[in-house]
Amino acid sequence: MPLGHQLILQPGGREVQGLRRVMTVTFTDMAGSTSMGEQLTPSAMVNVLNRYFSLKADAVQHHRGVVNKFIGDGVMAFWGPPFTTEQEHARLACRSAMDQLKSLETLRAILPELTGLRKDPPQVNIRIGISTGDVVVGTIGSENAKSYTVIGDTVNLGSRLESANRIYGTCILISESTWAQVGSEMVTREIDSLLVNGKTEPARVFELLGVEGEVPDKTLRLRDQYSAALSAYRSQDWAQAEKAFQACLDVIPNDGPAQVFLSRICRLHEQPPGDSWNGVWHLESK
To answer: Measured by CB atoms within 10 angstroms of the end CB, which terminus of the chain is less buried, N or C?
Structure first.
């Protein structure tokens, strides 16, 4: 049996000393779970969470990922050796994220049965952050409770990207290193350049839009229009940027990132950032 399967299927088995490897980490969170918990009975909430976790875990494991832990209503998972090759883990994580998004339709269809609310069942959505890079992987914990897990800046960035979806109104944000590895197989758009808490170097952030050849033409038009708008924004051509981001809303009226930038441009009009400005946005929330 391969080492990876021994680690997952045989708790209490041999420990693995810390190794440094390049891996891909994802964080998935259920949006609106707090308000849902206020609507539902405890037993109904448990029913929803158990079905939700099952669907997420199935999507991860189908693409050879490892469900590392459940955190409240969130799921942390990772991909990489010895479970996958070094060349494929970022791609598999992105495909899993797309499957997790599709699984929402299944969950929404059975919510009336799970919650007992035949009319106006709660709204369910997810946010996913994906990051690729160096991690320390090994058996970590106390003398009595240890698990095979990953730690490091790559893990922290994945968690921050999951949270950043709240700001941009997106569902799946990926790091630049993940974007570089998936290549042309996935359709993405660059969203912003962020400086997150605890980091000194900015990170380019991308939205995962879908698998190449499966993305609607309207979404592709939005991607191209948004790219032009982002270029004008970084050049401090506020008038052109505003016009271009508004054109994004003509393609998809509720596009969250375009709305964020239009609001940001209004503030920058009033308080110009100066010649030293590099277009990096400081993400203060975790």
So the answer is: N
What is the reported pTM? 0.91
Convert 67-118 into a string of H (helix), E (strand) and C (coil).
Answer: EEEEECCEEEEEECCCCCCCCCHHHHHHHHHHHHHHHHHHHHHHHHHHHCCC
Do 176 and 228 lie in one domain? The reply is no
pLDDT in tens, the chain (286 residues): 344 444 444 444 456 567 899 999 999 999 878 778 788 888 989 999 999 999 999 999 999 999 999 988 899 999 998 889 999 999 999 999 999 999 999 999 998 888 888 888 888 899 999 999 999 998 877 777 778 889 999 999 999 999 999 999 999 999 999 999 998 899 999 999 999 877 778 999 999 999 999 999 999 999 999 999 999 999 999 999 999 999 999 999 999 999 999 999 999 988 888 778 888 988 876 5
